[in-house]
Queue: 3 jobs
Job 1
Amino acid sequence: MPATPLSIATMTWARDAGEEALLRRSLGLLAGLGLPVFVTDGGSPASFLDFLRSLPSVTLLSPPRPGLWMQTRTSLRAAHDAGTPSILYTEPDKADFFATALPPLLPEAAPGDPPGVLLFSRSDRGFASFPAFQQMTETTINQCCREVMGEPVDYVYGPFVLNRAVVPHLEALPETIGWGWRPYAFNVARRLGYPLRAVTGDFRCPADQQQDTPAERIYRMRQLVQNIEGLTLSTTATLSR
């Protein structure tokens, strides 16, 4: 077994100076955890890529083609190939979570017997800090996930730990699945017999991510459609252990 029980898979795309500043802070915090970090970048400036290469324990990767799932799949594959029993997936912009909430929760993320899925879920208080339209779409996603998987938890916050054995089962997903890969992975893990559990905390929406614009609402609608597609695909996927 590898000396490190956990690796981290994430992706980046710094589209402007503000995003680059946030991602520099976030990735610096992740690198400071001392775990292998696999980052697939979607087209950031050279200065940011040089910064990523300078971070200890960070491996910078490129996707074969553009797209959210192409980036995510590339990082997950690399983390899987590293051989750690579990993989912590996270979006890269959760600097506050990385700084304060994640370090004391890492013992929870150590592989269990057998390791399965560990969700970091928002409490009702944390969930209420997010924009109203986002709450509406994510409530729908959560209700659908609960219908299929049975656990009354928040499935949508973002970071979670996944058994590496689940990663090969994600190869069948279409490149257009977007955020739908997440509920697909959760339910595939459950169908394979791995336990699903959650750690709940007051994970709040950062002040700079509380936009509720028409463009943001369209994005949330697209996210809703992708999640439902991934969840429904997971119910009929052919699995073998």
Note: The mean pLDDT is 95.
Job 2
Amino acid sequence: MMKMMLCFSAVLWLLVAAAWGSPIGLLVHEEPCLAVRNSSLQLNQLARTAAREARNGSNNIDDFTSDLAWIETKDLCDPETLKHNPETCLEKLLHVSSSYRSAVKRVSEFEKCSKFASKLQPAMLKLQRDMRRCVGARARGGAHLPQQPSDWLEAVERWQEASLCRFTLDRLFSFSVLTARVFAVGDPSLHAAAAAHHGCM
């Protein structure tokens, strides 16, 4: 009897999935990637506020030689590539998020940056956790999850701390914009479908 009930439940689940028009494989990783959409938007809002507050009206362009990772064209984060092969971009985003997490942790220790940067750490941790689940779910356990990069240990004079704070938070905000765009539809492989849908509006 129990076996029949389990079989019935499985068949019912398949019928519901078919009625929704969603491939079974998509449902496996759709929810973890939707979580990244929410956490990336949250980080984007916090990063924008932190960068603006750290600048305090200043238009100075701060530049440092750093080990911060960044997204490049070769990382294939464009919508068309995301549709067919999102893993390369997602793994790089995960690596870059780890790099920024280390950098933000460091500038949070600066007296003039602590009140801005410290607010970002919980959101960055949540984004990284959600992103790891999304990458792992998409690859069905076979994803190459990058290791946490070593902390950014370049020596900084005390008088440079405010500039480094602004530099780090500005770059984090730019990264958060890209991340929010990649996960705007939840599963990045749905970008093309979303674009087609909006084109019919």
Note: Residues 1-29, 194-201 have pLDDT under 50 and may be disordered.
Job 3
Amino acid sequence: MLIRQAEIQRAVRRIARQIERDFQGQRVHLIGVLKGACIFLSDLIREIHLDVSLDFMAVASYGKGKQSSGQVRLLKDLDTSIEGLNVILVEDILDTGLTLNYLCRILEQRKPRTLRIAALLDKPSRRIIPQVQAHYLGFEIPNEFVVGYGLDYAERYRNLRDVCVLSQPPE
């Protein structure tokens, strides 16, 4: 086990307070990156005491294994315009930066008032695009393949309450 549920909940509350300080009295629009960020996003949105709206995007870069393909494809786009909104892109893990760089480039073209990144986990040692950084971060972790709290291996283990290292993938 890498990060226990209680530690995760403390980090979610801390991130929510940071967002509240940064956007005092303003509306924020959270965009969850499916599927991995779903649990982090649902906990985070309930902790933010501001006017909050919500949308989702889905991308593919991992396929069914542990290695990113390096190619990012948009699978689901936003349902509404973000022009003029304070947007926070909510992601489970910041790894190489390829996915978030791809999404930020798309979103910046849509003219949000602000665009920030909230990530539960960060693996800086894997970063290919160093300029991609989280404005709001739960934990920096070592270069291990992790599952739980929304993160999966081949669509398994998302429902674990803790973040755990997957040492041996199941057959």
Note: The chain has a mean pLDDT of 94.
